[in-house]
Amino acid sequence: MQDSERRISRPLQQVRWIELPSVEDPRGTLTAAESQLDVPFDIRRVFYMHHVTASRGGHAHRDTDQVIIAMAGSFDVTLFDGEASASYGFDDPKRGLYVPRMVLVDLENFSTGAVCLVLASTPYDMSRSLRTRADFLQALSEAGG
What is the pLDDT of residues 50-89, one digit of tens each? Predict the structure, then answer.
């Protein structure tokens, strides 16, 4: 294990790129994602951000796993788990980033025309999200993390 890998804490070690099955032919490319096959959870919610003019995210979810996909354009995602952070550049609609629960997500640097699709493991429930970094750190502290 390299030094940079040792510094990444456990929640960020679960983060990984998922290559989505794609079929290309002269008409274009078709990409699909199926629950429990390509995506490691049952998809309970799908949402997307478009016409983005400012940074998004800045919160974490207590019990929601997500896969983030750049459907068009590009943007950056920074993840923070209370100890370490990692940044990822998005510009390929044929892959998504798996982000487990209890990771703070910041999205920024959206290109013109960018579309960010998110597949989530739970229906939306604002009461289950930690809307600020301070709330997130407090929840980690209370959980002993």
Answer: 999 999 999 999 999 999 999 999 999 999 999 999 999 9
**Phi, psi (5° rounding) for residue 108?**
-155, 175
Cα 81 to chain center, whole Å?
13
State how far the Cα of 6 lies from the Cα of 114, in Å rounded to an integer. 34
Tokens of 58: 């800045």
Q: Is residue 30 part of a domain?
A: no
Q: How far apart are CA 119 and CA 134, in angstroms?
A: 25
| pTM (two decimals) | 0.90
Within-domain flag for 106: yes
Cα separation, 67 vs 118, in Å, equals 6
Strand partners, 90: 75
Q: Report the CATH number at residue 100.
A: 2.60.120.10
Contact 76, 89 (CB under 8 A): yes
Cβ atoms of residues 17 and 24 within 8 Å: no
